[in-house]
Task: structure prediction
Amino acid sequence: MSNSPILVISNGLFMKCKNCGTETDGKFCRNCGQELEIHRITVSHLVHEIVHTFTHLEKGFLFTFRKLLADPGRMQRQYLEGFRVKYQRPFSMFFICSTASALCLYWLNRLSGSSADREQVAFNYFLQHYYVLLHILLLPFYTLITWVLFKPSKYNYAEILVLGMYMLAFMLLLIIPVYLLSAGIPVMKTRFVETTVFAVYNVCTFIRFFNKMAWWKVIIMSIVNLAINYLVYVFIMEWAVKVLANSSH
Result:
């Protein structure tokens, strides 16, 4: 069959969008943004889409990931200020990153060798099945602490939740290389490296996000915020590991 465009109803200079039915002119639908000239999907089309995804990082998941890596804090602030078209939405970004992290940690621990130490086995099981889930469940608490500490910034709880979702989504991806390294370097203090990575990223994000506050105040509040959240997480994690260790008897 030919590679000609699928028929789109035309009315003079106007074309009807195949996606929403709006009659409009130009290259894209003014209502939904879809291209008006639709081609059949072919192998070459799919190859072009793959290449385009990794070479044109002007919007979507990879663009958001790049911004969270290079410009954390400012990226979330721009999203809240209304610059949203180019960014992956917070819930979908959080879902994609947490799922990817959970799958990677699951298979990493599944493929790693077993340990004779009962508590280490319990910790590996927790990491494999509950690490990401615990962070997801604690996200509303993390958000509450951040909102209370930074209440003078005038951001509401929902806006701080958006900040937290983007930040935690990216940090869950950062954890993957940390645990990959720990698998190859058994003597590495994984929890120390993990805490350091989280702390540095947390502070850098908050300094850029709360840019109207004095930087030294933001640093102090960021450390307090991290300390509270980390202590709560460690308390629950260690309790869960003890329960898992005892249940393995």
Residues 89-247 form one domain. Strands lie at 10-11, 14-16, 23-24. The chain has two domains: 10-40, 89-247.
